[in-house]
Amino acid sequence: MHSSGYANRTTAFASSAGTNNVMNSSARLSTGLISEVLYREDQPMMTQLLLLPLLQQLGQQSRWQLWLTPKQKLSRQWVQAAGLPLTKVMQVSQLAPCHTVESMVRALRTGNYSVVIGWFTEALTDEEQHQLAEAAEEGNALGFIMRPVQVNSLGKGHLSGLKIHSNLYH
């Protein structure tokens, strides 16, 4: 019974100062922010429509974008076609889920990345979310927790979310 087929849920975890104003006029982050994006694997394109403009804007900064993907490798053609700076997009694939949070924390904390995107299959603990939020604030960066929603749980009041379309990978 989905009329539009899409609903998104973004949960922000950050300290109270400045979280409503993520970007200032010079396209720089005013503070760190962690956001969770739930997506349905059977409904592509929504993540591209929502996240690409932000990623393109962040691509104008001198800092890198880090993608921590579970299995797939990003397609160079997709990165270029999406308007992302090929020279500023870095990917680490085939990370075990237990190492993804640790890798995100370290990357966010450095301040070398404008955004760090990590894919997870399970919800993060409050402690993991807190660690990520602190690291994002310290590094003045954005972190996206990408997680698929279970289709069978949709009837129980869970919202569907977003997906990075499969043509992102090769």
Key traits:
170 residues, alpha/beta, six-stranded mixed sheet, 28% helix, 21% strand, disordered N terminus
Task: Give the SSE map.
Blueprint: E1 10-13, E2 33-39, H1 46-58, E3 64-69, H2 76-81, E4 89-93, H3 97-110, E5 113-119, H4 126-139, E6 142-148
Parallel strand pairs: 2-6, 3-4, 3-5, 5-6
Antiparallel strand pairs: 1-2
Helix pairs in contact: 3-4
Between the first and last Cα atoms, what is the distance in angstroms?
Answer: 33 Å
Shape: globular
Residue share in helices?
Answer: 25-40%
Amount of beta strand: 15-25%
Query: From the structure provided, what is the oligomeric state, counting identical versus distinct chains?
Result: single chain
Query: What is the H/E string?
Result: EEHEHEHEHE
Please report the number of helical segments: 4
- Largest sheet: number of strands, sense, barrel closure: 6 strands, mixed
| Structural category | alpha/beta
Strand order of the largest sheet: 1-2-6-5-3-4
Which value, in Å, is the CA radius of gyration? 15 Å
Low-confidence stretches: 1-29, 160-170
Your description of this structure?
The structure is a single chain. The protein has 170 residues and is α/β, with parallel strands linked by helices. It has 4 helices and 6 strands; from the N terminus they run E-E-H-E-H-E-H-E-H-E. Helix 2 (76-81) links the parallel strand 3 and strand 4 (89-93). The radius of gyration is 15 Å and the shape is globular.
